[in-house]
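Q: I have three molecules that I believe assemble together. Could you output structure tokens for the complex as a whole instead of separate predictions?
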Amino acid sequence: MVASRIAFISEIKKKPVTEQYPYKPISVPEGFRGKPVIDPEKCIGCGACVNACPPGALSIYDEGNYRVVKLFLGRCIFCGRCQDVCPMGAVRLTDMFELASLSRDDLVQEVRLLLEKCSLCGKAFATRREVRHVEEKLDPEQRWLAHLCPRCRALVSAKMIGYARGCNR
Amino acid sequence: MRCDEFIAKTGLVDAECVDDSTVLVRAKNVLETAEKLAEYGPRYSTGVGIDYRPINRSYLMHHVLALDKDGLFIVLEASTGDPEPSIKSITPVYPAANWHEREAMDMLGIRFENHPEPYRLILPDDWPEGVYPLRKDYPYDEKPYDPRSIADRAAPRYFSAKTGVGEKRVAAEIPLGPYHPALHEPEYYELIVEGERIVEARYRGFYVHRGMEKLAESRLTYNQIPFLAERICGICGYTHATAYCQAVEKAADIRVPVRAEYIRSILLEIERLHSHLLWFGVAFHLLGFDTGFMITWRLREKIMDLAELLTGNRKTYGLNLVGGVRRDIDEAKARAVLEALDYIEGKFKALIKQVKDMGEIIARTKNIGILTRDEARKLGAVGPHARASGVDIDVRRDYPYAAYKYVDVNVPVMDGCDVLSRILVRYEETLESIRLLRVFIREIPAGGLMAEYGDIPELRIGIGVTEAPRGEDIHYVVTGRENKIYRWRPRAPSYMNLATVPYMLVGEKLANAPIIIASIDPCFSCTDHVIVIDVGSGRKMSLMKALRMI
Amino acid sequence: MSTGVTDGVAVEQMIYTWVFALVNALVLLVYAPLLDGIGRKIRARIQRRRGPSILQTIYDLRKLYCMPGIIDGYSGRYARYAPALTMALAIMAGLIIPSFLPADTGCDLIVAAYLLVAVSIALTYGSLSMSIPYSVVGGCREASLMMASELCFAGAIASIAAAYGTLYIAVASPIIRLDPFKPSMIIAAAVLAIIAYVEGLNLPFEISEAEPELAGGALIGYGGRTLALLMHSSMIKETLFIALLVDLLFPWSILGTGPVGLVLRIAVFTVLTTFIYMVMRMLDTVYGRYTPRQAIRALKRVGLASIIAVILASIGW
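A: Yes, here they are, computed for all three components at once.
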């Protein structure tokens, strides 16, 4: 019984385990889920991340001729679903965790992407990069389809199918 | 026993198999059917109220009964129409149904006839009457009133408790809590004491109710809910995420790849380790032995580092999606796990060996906070709390899930029924966790991490159960349309175990109240309490009387 | 006090005595919290933590002293008097019980006991006058602990009186001698050491503040300056119990008189009290907490030992 007490007391000889952070830096392992960063060069404004984000930290809206993808860190839960679903690998979770700031603006990331107008009706329907991304996957003869908004595309496609079947209109 | 065998054996009418291990019994007379089922000795697991009006204009109450020895769940369905929905209470047959029915009462407005305690449970006392948040026509972001505008707060209540032989004492209730410097989380116990002896105990909680069920139904998709479920608890979050995923996977008949099952089990055991070590620390702190607290939490740090390495975060692992897991465990990570286990095992064993020599610790835990086996069974206690009172249940063995299907789990059961037994059960479980982890790491097969699946069919029932560090964690899911659920009910193990606290406290010394409350390892760590001082007469207390109260 | 000495020498001696006493009390005001700081460091290191600086308790007290005193508004009169009263008694004890400098205040064991116990009583009385249940329960526990430990204390004192026929500290010290050797004094010394340990609120006996159970218990109704006064006087009381132990056990006469003897006295006293305090804190770190009943039961056994000491001492052993 005395032996246990003495055993406990003898721990005093050992070095303390206290980490000296913040006076010394602390490292995080690989794969740590820290602050997400959107690469504005890669983002095409598709909105997949916005759909996947559980707390709604990511949002997407149109402002004038631009589509804005906005990340507000205040709502972010650092789950990394945005990184999972982004087709371009534009969103990456970094190892940054020291995010405290005096200014709310530091917590907001915005990517502004130029909107493409429909070549038929002139309505803005997707970002220029999205259109380019789709174009690349199409045969050269079909690329003009990518420049139509969904409604116009549907109308034109229906007409083409109609002509193909011999309707004369 | 499989579902169809059970129906054949019992000859139940209106029973159908939801899946292999779940029987749905649509009862015309729920009380009668409940009594009939009681013959098979089931354990009451959870009760779910569902607003089914958009489907067939009725309200449903699903009572989930568990047949542990057979690995079978019975869903007893009672339905009632609109308006004035009313169902017979089955609390007289299953006392553990008490809170579940009260919750359905609060949140859905279903009246339970002959319920012994039809009082508010979840909603605050000043919530307006007739407003039922879980009804489908109540928007999730609506606030019925501005709390600041309520002028009429409840005044302190006085009540008399007959104590002592023939003596009538008046006890004054001083509202302490739910917010108090001593409380770690908001909760409210009323302990009515005579000197150091507790004569009565009451519990009032649900101050941290966050409306998650409504949120999940209203604006989250199937794959977003695991991240919400993970945040139900800051200690056993991953268990909740896993139980939810299992519920949906069962409902939709999705087969999770075996490697993913192993990964889930590995993280589940890692979570169990961190939870038990945390609990040991808290228990030691309450017993005044802070050094023990520091030692166990130092060991726990190794587990937290492991979690961070494996999942990217110390807590909130974010690992599960419906159908599998998002991350793999490679050689290096597996090795790190084994190294951490080697470090912890020896030191933890040495610590507990030393603690067993400390007379003052043993004296404060042996024969303290007794919960008899009958009380434990009747109240539906689960987990180490139940196992320390001789109730032999463990979800990993009774309803095997994830990788537990492929291994044998040793379940420690003791019959001391006291705080010391609970300590010893958790000690054995910690060692068993370490053993299981080593087995999982060694035997994990190669394979994929995520199942492929199409649309999830709607209006299917799925029950996902896991053995959380605190006991059976059951998630009840009814699938919906457009990638959303229809109803989700997570029932944490502490829900059942908290009901046993008043039984354990009565007759004990006040000094032992914190450790007794903590011994159930409550998920809102209630190391604290409210004290009501019993006065002989009137409110003033004289020194002489005070000194006599020892 | 000696008689038959000329007035001049007597006055000079009196001035020495009271200057020494004043210095003792003043140094104690700083030394007591410094010891507490050392104790916290030791506790931390045993727990493998870095721990606060040893000056931390002094900083804490300084911070509290600068804040307005708070006393729970619904409390009785005595709760308001308690902080100042407790500190006054602690300072008085510090003046009269010899510590660093050998102040020949004519202190006898009864006066020392009285003053030290009075500090506890004043504090407890204040806690019991509060309307906060935690405070009352803490006060009750402190009261019951006091009754049990003061009995042992009294027994030890009685045994010393029976052994050496005097209550004066200066004369009774050292209580353990080779010639004549009295086994009862070994018991008395042990009892005094245990009582000093208990009065220092060391685990397993720290039941009146019991943070996880009572959230600060006896002191919960106070804040700022009043809290500082109570904490500070507790520390002084605790140190004085150890000082008493050291006064009674060490053979001070071997250090001689004169300036050298004085310096030696200061050194020996400081080293011994610090050492004893550190050992007590080490034990405190590796024990759990008793329930009040267990604490009283343990003290009953100590009380029995002190009664045995009295009996043995009266028959010459």
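A: One point stands out. Residues 20-314 of chain C form one domain.
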